[in-house]
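Go through this chain for my students:
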Amino acid sequence: MYSEEDFGKITIKPWQLFTDKQHLRDVVRDYCIQIGFSIIVQKANNKKWTVLCSDERCGWRLHACRLSDGLTWVIKSIQNPKHNCLGMQIKNPMVTSKWVARVLLEDIRANNDIPAKSNNNFLWERYGVVMTFSTLYRMKSKALVEGIDNALSRLWPAAGRRYCCKHLSQNFKSKFSGPKMWNLFWLACEAYSEFTFRNAMEAFQKTNPAVRIWLADLVEQCRWTKRKFDGSIKSNVNKTNFVESFNSTLGIDRCRPVMTLLEGTRRVTMVSWPQGRKH
């Protein structure tokens, strides 16, 4: 079974086993970036996976296949493992924000406020690549969202989840401008009855039918319009104003581990409440 060597060095060789195809693809991508070349897929299906070095002059070729258990994959052969090419002389196209989010996810989970410079140091030491700070900040936001989504789905699969209509309205406004469209959007979001919601939809249909298509492509209506909210949840809030104000009050503590977060909350509460008042 494949395992990393000391200091994160990646070595691949024939007859290494991988838990599934995605595991194989991730390791090969990491290996290529660490060595300094990119690959192209020659053949890929549910049973075989063959890739070549993107430099036509190089004879590097890897072939892998799925074992009889239907899940495990194995590298069958690697041709010209030493390479004839000199590696990438320009930016490696395999280095993407999605890839960076995967390799840095655990570091970001351990320290949510880790600076972009530290992330770049890790990428350079292990893979020999660097990225712009703006890209790293965008990647960090994506990684945090993915960590939160996984946690909610795994720990609270039945928990109700809603969109912030204030943020949703900004996306809506960039596509459908004008005060009439803006008012109809909020009429649909704030509607408590089927009658009011249907009137808003009919007005959209007459003004711009594309709006209804855009709204239909969102997730279930129970996440953004009040008429579909779960009645057992005793809240009709469809904005995150309170959460954002609370996060702003907590400051950097909201990125800390749970116990540190609770201590930060306690300090904020003591400062905010009048002296001598029990809480």
